[in-house]
Task: inverse folding
């Protein structure tokens, strides 16, 4: 069962990135706001929901492991024990609070030095105030669905096959970085680091929702706060 689940998960990831009409993160039109840009952002949100959220939930359900969403899986306990043995590692509340403060600091610094550190975000970032709602939707959707997929389904499945939850989190973190290849090499490197941090948040807290919250906050910073504070949003021009 685990081998089949992993095959389905990897196929879904590849379809998300390369699969025809649903494939590799097309750039939105740079023209005036309208139906084309709205369709672009709607497709991105739908793809996250289908390829990561629905696939992960379906796979966990077939494996009888939906409980793992709210209860830390015993198969991952060795990785958690390793994380908790780190000297001086703070409690998960401090980890989450530190991540939130980091998000706010990065948003403020964006006004002084515009330009994302997460690579090329043109495929997902709003260009106008009227599109900020899409940024919020993408941040929340990615925060929830990608955590279920990359911090739970993949590590749990790989750990079941290999017997090593550490290997599970390592492979899932590398795939998380690869999933952001549309952002270029800088984006892959940055999101791989972010993925490792989110894995630690999940392991230390033992709560998937904490990793979801931190992930959504990071994306909210990139897709909403930084464009707002950086002054990069174009005004909506009246017709005519």
Result:
């Amino acid at each position: 069962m685990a081998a089949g689940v992993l095959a389905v998960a990897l196929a879904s990831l590849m379809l998300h990135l390369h699969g025809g009409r649903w494939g590799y993160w097309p750039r939105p039109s740079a023209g005036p706001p309208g139906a084309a840009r709205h369709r672009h952002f709607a497709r991105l949100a739908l793809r996250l929901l289908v390829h990561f959220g629905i696939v992960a939930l379906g796979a966990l359900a077939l494996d009888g492991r939906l409980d793992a969403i709210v209860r830390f899986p015993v198969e991952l306990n060795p990785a958690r024990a390793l994380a908790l043995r780190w000297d001086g590692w703070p409690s998960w509340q401090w980890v989450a609070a530190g991540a939130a403060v980091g998000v706010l600091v990065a948003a403020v610094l964006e006004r002084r030095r515009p330009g994302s550190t997460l690579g090329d975000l043109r495929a997902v970032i709003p260009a106008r105030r009227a599109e900020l709602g899409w940024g919020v939707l993408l941040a929340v959707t990615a925060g929830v669905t990608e955590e279920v997929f990359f911090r739970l389904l993949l590590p749990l499945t790989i750990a079941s096959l290999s017997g090593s939850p550490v290997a599970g989190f390592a492979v899932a973190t590398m795939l998380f970085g690869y999933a952001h290849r549309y952002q270029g090499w800088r984006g892959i490197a940055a999101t791989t680091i972010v993925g490792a941090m989110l894995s630690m948040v999940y392991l230390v807290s033992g709560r998937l929702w904490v990793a979801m919250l931190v992930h959504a906050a990071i994306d909210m910073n990139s897709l909403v706060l930084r464009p707002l504070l950086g002054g990069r949003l174009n005004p909506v021009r009246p017709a005519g």
In short: The two ends are 60 Å apart (CA to CA). The helical segments are 2-18, 35-62, 77-84, 92-112, 132-162, 165-178, 184-205, 208-230.
